[in-house]
Write a structure and sequence with these properties.
5 helices; globular; five-stranded antiparallel sheet; Nuclear Transport Factor 2, Chain: A; single chain; 7 strands; 233 residues
């Protein structure tokens, strides 16, 4: 049976379309699958076919033979000698540590924690705070609820982050970050009257937060282990 050229062309087009659909639909996109050990490594391909989209601060297994970055300008992230020395100590102990990824993740964590505390969201706080810090946050939330008070916090901006100290000891890395921010915060009583803050006033605040994470842990989360606040008018 002889086929005319038009039939052959359409048959080839059909085969091509089927191949393209299979190549596109057969690609699976994973969002934040459980990462391999090692913090802050650049995102890459998983062991299976498909793309991996990682959230800020996610970890991946470091390449074999990886070492601390050569010529890293630590002063870009740390203004103090303790901060710069701490970063180099961490990168020596954990070559997979990525400072730019940590900085981005710290900003996200800061915003999430501030919002969760204002909203009384203990579930989010449990995942981001150490047990000791969580206990203090949860107690403050319970006291606020018992008094019938409501807090509203709007983070206007994170103007600057500065690593002031870092260390890698006893299998754990710790980094202290000073966040210079602007926010609006108010607290209202049962009657809805403002008892703290001003909804029209933007406050500049410096918060010194310390994050920690076990070296080589499969969990990519840096948990908040200490806080200090220094409000500025």
């Amino acid at each position: 049976m002889q086929m005319d050229p038009t039939t052959i062309i359409f048959a080839l087009l059909a085969i091509f379309v089927v191949w393209r659909l299979k190549s596109v639909l057969g690609t699976r996109v994973d969002i934040e699958r459980p990462p391999a050990p090692g913090p802050g490594a650049p995102p890459g391909q998983s062991s299976e076919s498909g793309k991996v989209i990682r959230l800020p601060g996610a970890a991946a297994r470091p390449p074999v033979g990886a070492s601390a970055p050569v010529g890293l300008d630590a002063s870009k992230y740390a203004s103090t000698e303790k901060g710069r020395a701490g970063l180099m100590e961490i990168m020596t102990a954990d070559p997979s540590f990525d400072i730019s990824r940590f900085e981005a993740g710290a900003k996200v964590a800061y915003e999430m924690i501030v919002r969760a505390f204002a909203d009384g969201d203990k579930t989010t706080l449990t995942n981001l705070l150490s047990p000791e810090v969580y206990s203090g946050f949860a107690s403050a939330i319970d006291q606020r609820l018992a008094a019938g008070e409501q807090t509203s916090t709007k983070l206007v901006s994170i103007d600057e982050t500065d690593i002031v100290e870092g260390s890698a000891k006893n299998g754990t890395t710790q980094i202290s970050v000073r966040f210079s921010t602007k926010m609006i915060s108010t607290t209202r009583d049962k009657a809805g009257e403002i008892i703290h803050g001003d909804p029209d006033l933007v406050i500049s605040t410096d918060d010194l937060w310390t994050f920690a994470r076990p070296i080589g842990s499969p969990d990519p989360t840096w948990r908040l282990v200490a806080t200090e606040s220094d409000p500025k008018s």
